[in-house]
Amino acid sequence: MTVTGPKGFRAAGVAAGIKASGALDLSLVVNDGPLDVAAGVFTRNVIKAAPVLWSQEVLKQQKLKAVVLNSGGANAATGPGGFQDTHATAEKVAEVLGTGAIEVAVCSTGLIGERLPMPAVLSGVDSAVKALDAGPEAALNAATGVMTTDTKPKQAFARHDSGWSVGGFAKGAGMLAPNLATMLSVLTTDAVADKETLDRALRAATHVTFDRLDVDGGTSTNDTVLVLASGASGVEPTEAELTELLTKVSHDLVLQLRADSEGATKDVDVTVKGAASEADAIVVARTIAEDNLVKTALFGSDPNWGRIAMALGRAPARIDPETVSIAINGVTLFAGGTTAEDRSAADLSGRAIDVVVDLGVGSGEATIYTTDLSHAYVEENSAYSS
């Protein structure tokens, strides 16, 4: 089990009729307590979807009873009417569950700029509440109900030796460059945690996981990661323990998201070390990961370190060409300002590619998780609205 693996949670995923295909398109996660502590991180895109604005507001109290999520429409750039739709959705969930709307977060994903079919959304809430269950099938349905161009649901779960656990699901296949969160993800834990501890643990976990996933440089209007704590295990871990398990589950989900991202044929880790700071390492790694010439070379299994050198050299960071080295899949191809090894020595025929850049000017280090840029990515994103 995943999102329902931790004690105190139920979930559901139903076909509300938001999608014309009849696929599952509305999900609900409910925290049955005894605690209702929550935390969240959201997109840094200044054009924020109505559900992001709503959820940011309700999260100010750091308490959530439920999260309702829909696919089939982002409810972004929909003006005051779109915000009213989000409010109405939260009110409906609150009414059926017997709680307040201020304790309900809302998430949406799909086409930007169109209003949601509210009769379908509201009737879907009724159906989802009736379908709530703590079993694995309910968790799978909830993870499936948020899919857009994803080809499979993404779920993860981990248990601590002392008896508490973390579970969750995520969706996302394109427009993945979070700059804080990414796509939609709901994490649950039955650990006992106060608001401040849970918030710090989530931010530390997402900083090295969701925030490091960068498939195409597109920061969505709807990016949201939420964590709900029920306290049902009765165990209060240390902040370090909570951060570690949240990080483990988040990292698992990130790798699943990358593997299922649109058109990807390569799973690429871009690690920058020896930077003047972690911030420098992140900006250099992200510049390399987002560069189209680098990504197309990797699609062609071409260890073209020259494109990597070009990309890192334009990053706004402290860089000394004489101390930089570039290695691909364990072979150092560039060092000391010139060729170190013939590029043919690096084998890129497999799916996994490991790019390691050592700037040689400090101790800062970071890894960005990315992919190649394939024909399939271009074809998929030019053939439909997303």
Summarize the structure.
The chain is of the alpha+beta class and 386 residues long.
Which H/E pattern describes the elements? EEEHEHEHHEEEHEHEHHHEEEEEH
Query: Biggest sheet: strands, sense, closure?
Result: 6 strands, mixed
Output the structural class. alpha+beta
Uncertain stretches: 178-182
Gap between N and C termini, in Å? 30 Å
Overall mean pLDDT: 94
Q: Please bin the fraction of helical residues.
A: 25-40%
The portion of residues forming beta strands comes to: 15-25%
The strand count comes to: 15
Going across the biggest sheet, name each strand in turn: 13-12-11-14-10-15
Keywords:
alpha+beta; single chain; 5-stranded mixed beta sheet; globular; 6-stranded mixed beta sheet; 15 strands; 386 residues
Secondary structure elements and pairings:
Elements: E1 9-14, E2 26-31, E3 37-42, H1 50-58, E4 66-70, H2 79-97, E5 104-108, H3 118-131, H4 136-144, E6 154-159, E7 165-171, E8 184-189, H5 195-207, E9 224-229, H6 239-259, E10 267-275, H7 278-290, H8 292-299, H9 305-313, E11 325-328, E12 331-335, E13 338-339, E14 352-358, E15 364-371, H10 375-383
Parallel strand pairs: 4-5, 8-9, 10-14
Antiparallel strand pairs: 1-2, 2-4, 3-9, 6-7, 7-8, 10-15, 11-12, 11-14, 12-13
Helix pairs in contact: 1-2, 2-3, 5-6, 7-9
